[in-house]
Design goal:
The complex is a heterodimer of chains A (480) and B (466). Helix content of chain A is 41%, strand content 19%. Chain A contains 19 helices and 19 strands. Chain A has a six-stranded mixed β-sheet with strand order 3-2-1-6-14-15. In chain A, strands 8-7-19-18-17 form a five-stranded antiparallel β-sheet. Chain A is an alpha+beta fold and 480 residues long. Chain A has a domain at 211-363 and 378-479: DD-peptidase/beta-lactamase superfamily (Beta-lactamase, 3-Layer(aba) Sandwich), CATH 3.40.710.10. In chain A, helix 12 packs across helix 15. The longest helix of chain A has 28 residues, at 2-29. Chain B has one domain (16-460). In chain B, the strands form two sheets. A three-stranded antiparallel β-sheet of chain B has the order 1-2-3, with no helix packed on it. The longest helix of chain B has 34 residues, at 346-379. Classes of the chains: A alpha+beta (480), B mainly alpha (466).
Chain lengths: 480, 466
C-alpha cells in the first residue's frame, strides 16, 4: 500500500504548493490593491492607532490625541479650537489635514527620520511608534488678545518677533472649530464642513497667510523706505501734496482720503506726508522713484518670495511691469499690489529690526516621543531691507504717525509705538480693507503686528479706528 | 509490504532526546511569540502570559515523559510539531484577548474572560486524553477489533447535532452539541472514529473492492455490487451538507474515504469514481442548496458582497494583505477586525501579523507533521496500521487545506476549525488524540519487537488480546 500513500502524499504536496502560491499572490502581489480597496479600514486605523504627538503653545498642548472607545483608537482634540485654528489646522477623516497638522505630519505621526533612534528603540521594544511633539512659536497671550480683539470683524492678525522672525500670533476671523472636523463621525464632519464652505465669510480660509489684500497706505512704508534708500530724500524733503493728483498720461485723478491738500499750500515734508497718509504726495514720490525702485524695495521686504513657515504662505505681489500711472497707484498700495497680513507684519518687523528682515517661522522645536528636543529652529535672515540708519529714520517717522498722525489708536502709555494705518479699495464696489502695521517698543521692538480688517468703512480713519486697537491689544499682550 | 523473515531487529535508537530538545525549541519559539505580543502591547508581561507559558511547558514535559514511558520508539518530531502549533494558536488567542480587553477598558465595559485560559484548559484536557490514549491503546491493532462499534459511534456523533434537545445551530451550521453548559462539535470526534472504521473496514474488504470487472481505457472499473460503500459514504456526506449545512465536514469525510479506498485497493478507478461523485455532488448541492450557492458566489466575487455575505472573506483578505511579506508583527496588526479571528479565521490573523513568511513557515509545520504521519503509515508493517496512520494524516491534511484554502479564497469558504490553532475544545482534543494515535503507530513501526512476528498480512492477521 506504500505506492498509493506516496502518490497521495505527492498530491497533498501539490495542495500545499497551491496554498503557498495563493497566499504569496495575496500577501505580496495583490496586497497593495487590497489595501486601497473601499471598506479596508486598516490604513486609516493604522494612522489613528498611533498616538499622534501634540502641538504645543508654550507648555500647553493645543492639539493632542485622546484615546476613544471606537474602532479608531485615537481622536484629535483641540483645546480652544477656534483660537488656534489658523495654526493647527484640522485633522479630518474625510478632508485630510491642514495647517501644522499637515506640514508636521511626519513628526506628529513619528515617521520622520528625526526619530530614527526612537524607532530603533521602539522596534526592539515592539511598541507602536508614538508621535513627536511640535512646539510652536505662538505667544498664548498675544494670540488670545488678537482673537478677542477680532471678534465680530472679518480679517487677520499676524504678530512677529522682529529680531528672530518667530510668529507670536496668527489669527483668522471668523474661525472654525477643528474639533468638529476631527471627530470620528463622517456625517457630522461633512455637515460642518459644508456649512463652513457655504459661509460667505469663509471661516476655513487661513487669512493671516493666505488672504491677499491690497495693502493700501501701509505700503507707503515701502515707498518711504525706497525714497530713503535712494539717498535723494530725507524726512524733511518737501513733496507736493495737492488735494488731487492727475495720474501721468491719464485723465484719472487721485484724491487724498479727506479730499484736502496736505500740509500748507499743498507742500508737505516726507515725514508729514507719512503721518497724514498723503496719497497725492506718495503717488508723486512713487513716480519720481520709478517702479523698479519700488519693486526692488518691496522684494527686499519679502514681496514676490514664497515663504513656508512651514505652512505655505501665499506670495505677496508687486506687479512686474508698470506705467507711471500704475506706479503712482502702486506707491500707495493700490493697483495690483497684494499682500498678506504676514507680509505686512514682516515689513514692520524689518524696519523695527534695524533694516534686517528675518524669515518668519511657526515651529520653535520638535520633541521626540520621550520629549527630548530633536530639532530647534534657528532664526535666519531673509536679507537686509534697508540700512540701519534709514531703518531708524523710518521708525522715527512711524512713531510720529502714532503720536501725531493717523495712527493715534495704536498708542500705548509709556511705550513708544511705531505704526502706519492703511485703507485700501479692493475694487470699485467692494468695501475697503482697513490695515494697521506697527511695532513696539520703537527701539528694539519685541513685537511687530499687522492687522487687516476686511469689509471696513471707506475712510482712512478705518485703519486707525478698526485695525489699530487690535494691534494695540496684541502689542500690549506681548509687552506686559 | 511483505517481509520474509521475522528476524530480530537491531536495537533502534529511541531518539527521545531529540524530541525533548525540539520541544524546548518549540516552547522557546512560543515564549518569544508571547513576549512579542506583550511588548507590542507596551505593558509588562501579564500573569496570563506566564501562566500560559508555564502550563504549556509543563504539559509538553509531561507528554514527553509519557511518550518516553509508553511509546519509546515513537517518531520524535510529531509531538514537538503539535506542541508548536498549539502554542502558536494560544499566542494568537492571547493576542486577541489583549485587543478585546483593551477595547473593553476604553469603553468602560467589564473585562471579558480571557479565551486563552479556556483554551489552556482544553489543552490540558487534550493532553490528558493524549496520555489516556497512549496508556489504553497499547497496540493500535486492538482498535481493529472495534471497527464496527467505533464506526457506528462515529456515525451517531455525526448525526447527533440534528437530534432534538442536544443539537444546536451556531452561525448557521448545525454541528454542535450542547450538554449542560458545554458545547461540543461531535464531528471532530467522529473524524477519528470514522478513520478507524474506514481503516478496519477497508482492511477487511479491500480484496473484493480491488477486483476488476472491466477495463475501460486502461482503467479497471470495480464491480457494480462493490459500489455500495462509496455510495453510502457519498450519501452520508451529502446528508451532512444538506441537513447540517456543514460543507467542510462533508467534503472532509468524502475526501478521506476516497483516499483511503484508493490506498487500500490501489485502484485508481476509485479515485476517478470518487472524483466524479464529488463533481455530481457539487453540482447537485450548488443547484439545490442555497447555502452552497451563496458560498460559491461569494468565492467567485467577494467584493460585490463585501458588506454582506462576503464580509468575512473580504476582511480576511484585507488582513492578509496588511501582513504583506513580513507581517505587521505580533500584536501590531488588526486581526480583531476579522470576524471569528480566533476560530475559523485564525490563519488570516496569523497571516496578518506574521506575513507570508510566517504563514508559509506555519504551513510547512503542518506539512512536516503530515509527512511524519504518512512516513509512519509507510513504515508500519500491518495493513490496518498503515491505513489508519495514512487516514489520520490525510484527514489532518484535508482539513488544513479546506480551511486555509477557504480563508485565503483558494476554494469556497467552509467552516472547519484549523487543527491545533483554532480556539475551541473539541477540535484541540480531537487533534491531540490523532497525535497520540500517530505516535502509537510510529512506536509500533520502529519498535524492535522480537516477541511478535510481523503481522504483515492483514487478511490473515490474528489480533492479540490484551
Amino acid at each position: 500500500m506504500n505506492r498509493p500513500i506516496r502518490r497521495i502524499a505527492f498530491v497533498l504536496g501539490l495542495l500545499l504548493v497551491a496554498l503557498v502560491i495563493n497566499v504569496t499572490v495575496i500577501q505580496v502581489f495583490l496586497a497593495r490593491d487590497y489595501r486601497d480597496r473601499a471598506g479596508n479600514q486598516r490604513i486609516l486605523l493604522q494612522e489613528y492607532d498611533r498616538e499622534r504627538g501634540p502641538i504645543l503653545v508654550g507648555p500647553d498642548p493645543v492639539a493632542r490625541s485622546k484615546e476613544t472607545g471606537d474602532t479608531l483608537t485615537y481622536q484629535r482634540m483641540y483645546s480652544n479650537g477656534p483660537l488656534y485654528a489658523s495654526v493647527t489646522g484640522f485633522y479630518s477623516l474625510v478632508y485630510g489635514a491642514t495647517g501644522l497638522e499637515r506640514t508636521e505630519n511626519s513628526i506628529l505621526t513619528g515617521k520622520s527620520s528625526l526619530f530614527v533612534v526612537d524607532r530603533v528603540q521602539q522596534l526592539f521594544a515592539g511598541r507602536q511608534p508614538h508621535g513627536g511633539a511640535v512646539t510652536t512659536t505662538i505667544n498664548a497671550r498675544a494670540q488670545a488678545a488678537a482673537f478677542n480683539a477680532m471678534k465680530g470683524k472679518r480679517g487677520a492678525v499676524v504678530a512677529i518677533e522682529p529680531s528672530t522672525g518667530r510668529i507670536l500670533a496668527s489669527v483668522q476671523s471668523p474661525s472654525f472649530d477643528p474639533n468638529l472636523l476631527s471627530s470620528h463621525d463622517p456625517a457630522a464632519i461633512r455637515d460642518y464642513y459644508n456649512a463652513l464652505t457655504a459661509d460667505p465669510n469663509k471661516p476655513l480660509l487661513n487669512r493671516p497667510i493666505v488672504a491677499l489684500n491690497p495693502p493700501g497706505s501701509t505700503f507707503k512704508l515701502v515707498t518711504t523706505a525706497a525714497a530713503l534708500e535712494s539717498g535723494q530724500y530725507t524726512p524733511d524733503s518737501v513733496l507736493p501734496g495737492p488735494a488731487t493728483y492727475l495720474l501721468p498720461n491719464s485723465t484719472k485723478e487721485l484724491h487724498n482720503w479727506n479730499g484736502k491738500a496736505c500740509g500748507t499750500k499743498g507742500q508737505v515734508t516726507l515725514r508729514q506726508a507719512l503721518a497724514l497718509s498723503c496719497n497725492t504726495a506718495f503717488a508723486w514720490l512713487g513716480v519720481q522713484l520709478g517702479d523698479a525702485a519700488l519693486r526692488d524695495q518691496a522684494r527686499k521686504m519679502g514681496f514676490d518670495s514664497a515663504f513656508q513657515i512651514p505652512l505655505r504662505v501665499a506670495t505677496s505681489h508687486f506687479p512686474d511691469i508698470l506705467d507711471p500711472a500704475q506706479t503712482a497707484l502702486a506707491a500707495i498700495g493700490q493697483y495690483d499690489v497684494r499682500a498678506t497680513a504676514l507680509e505686512m507684519a514682516m515689513v514692520g518687523a524689518a524696519i523695527g529690526n534695524g533694516g534686517v528682515l528675518m524669515n518668519p517661522y511657526l515651529v520653535q522645536e520638535v520633541r521626540g516621543p520621550g520629549l527630548a528636543v530633536l530639532q530647534t529652529t534657528d532664526p535666519s535672515t531673509f536679507g537686509t531691507a534697508l540700512t540701519t540708519a534709514n531703518a531708524a529714520t523710518l521708525t522715527d517717522m512711524m512713531v510720529n504717525v502714532v503720536d501725531k498722525g493717523t495712527g493715534t489708536n495704536g498708542r500705548i502709555g509709556g511705550v513708544k509705538v511705531a505704526g502706519k494705518t492703511g485703507t485700501a479699495q479692493t475694487g470699485n464696489d467692494n468695501p475697503a480693507v482697513a490695515w494697521f502695521v506697527s511695532f513696539a517698543p520703537a527701539l528694539r521692538p519685541k513685537v511687530a503686528v499687522a492687522v487687516v480688517v476686511e469689509d471696513a468703512g471707506a475712510a482712512e480713519v478705518s485703519g486707525n479706528g478698526l485695525a489699530a486697537p487690535v494691534a494695540r491689544a496684541v502689542m500690549q499682550a506681548v509687552l506686559n | 509490504m511483505s517481509r520474509s523473515v521475522a528476524s530480530p531487529s537491531p536495537p533502534q535508537p529511541t531518539r527521545r532526546l531529540w524530541e525533548l530538545l525540539l520541544l524546548v525549541f518549540a516552547w522557546l519559539i512560543g515564549l518569544l511569540g508571547f513576549l512579542q505580543v506583550q511588548w507590542a502591547n507596551g505593558e509588562g508581561a501579564s500573569a496570563q502570559l506566564w501562566v500560559t507559558v508555564t502550563v504549556v511547558g509543563v504539559l509538553a514535559l509531561v507528554s514527553h515523559g509519557v511518550v518516553q514511558w509508553k511509546a519509546r520508539y515513537a517518531d520524535p518530531i510529531i509531538l514537538p510539531l503539535a506542541t508548536l502549533l498549539t502554542m502558536l494558536g494560544l499566542i494568537m488567542i492571547y493576542r486577541l484577548d489583549v485587543a478585546a480587553a483593551h477595547k473593553a477598558e476604553i469603553n468602560g465595559n467589564p473585562l471579558p474572560s480571557p479565551d486563552v485560559y479556556a483554551q489552556l484548559t482544553w489543552f490540558t484536557v487534550a493532553v490528558i486524553l493524549f496520555i489516556a490514549v497512549l496508556f489504553v491503546v497499547r497496540d493500535h491493532r486492538t482498535l481493529q477489533r472495534y471497527t464496527y462499534t467505533l464506526g457506528l459511534l462515529g456515525l451517531v456523533l455525526l448525526v447527533l447535532p440534528l437530534a432534538p434537545f442536544v443539537g444546536t445551530t451556531i452561525n448557521g451550521a448545525t454541528l454542535w452539541l450542547r450538554v449542560g453548559g458545554f458545547s461540543f462539535q461531535p464531528a471532530e470526534a467522529a473524524k477519528i472514529l470514522l478513520t478507524i472504521f474506514f481503516a478496519g473496514y477497508l482492511v477487511e474488504k479491500r480484496d473484493s473492492l480491488a477486483l476488476v470487472r472491466t477495463n475501460v481505457m486502461g482503467v479497471g472499473l470495480p464491480r457494480g455490487k462493490d459500489l455500495g460503500p462509496i455510495l453510502i459514504a457519498w450519501g452520508v456526506s451529502l446528508a451532512i451538507l444538506v441537513l447540517e449545512n456543514d460543507l467542510g465536514t462533508s467534503m472532509l469525510f468524502f475526501g478521506l474515504f476516497v483516499c483511503m479506498l484508493y490506498i487500500a485497493t490501489q485502484r485508481r478507478s476509485w479515485l476517478i469514481l470518487g472524483g466524479l461523485l464529488f463533481l455530481v455532488g457539487a453540482v447537485l448541492s450548488y443547484v439545490l442548496v442555497s447555502h452552497v450557492r451563496i458560498r460559491v458566489t461569494v468565492w467567485l466575487d467577494p467584493w460585490t458582497y463585501s458588506d454582506t455575505s462576503g464580509f468575512q472573506i473580504v476582511q480576511s483578505l484585507f488582513g492578509l494583505a496588511n501582513g504583506g511579506m513580513l507581517g505587521s508583527g505580533l500584536g501590531r496588526g488588526f486581526p480583531n477586525l476579522v470576524p471569528f479571528a480566533n476560530t475559523d479565521f485564525i490563519i488570516s490573523a496569523l497571516g496578518e501579523e506574521l506575513g507570508v513568511t510566517g504563514l508559509v513557515a506555519l504551513l510547512l509545520v503542518y506539512a512536516l507533521l503530515i509527512e511524519r504521519g504518512l512516513r509512519t503509515a509507510v513504515s508500519v508493517k500491518d495493513a490496518f496500521g498503515q491505513l489508519l496512520a495514512a487516514g489520520l494524516s490525510i484527514v489532518l491534511a484535508l482539513q488544513v487545506f479546506v480551511i486555509v484554502g477557504g480563508v485565503t479564497r483558494l476554494i469556497p469558504l467552509t467552516g472547519l476549525t484549523t487543527p491545533f490553532l483554532s480556539y475551541g475544545g473539541s477540535s484541540l482534543v480531537a487533534n491531540w488524540v490523532i497525535v497520540a494515535l500517530l505516535l502509537r503507530i510510529s512506536d509500533r513501526a520502529r519498535r524492535p519487537d522480537i516477541a511478535t512476528p510481523a503481522a504483515d498480512d492483514a487478511l490473515t492477521q490474528v489480533v492479540r488480546r490484551l
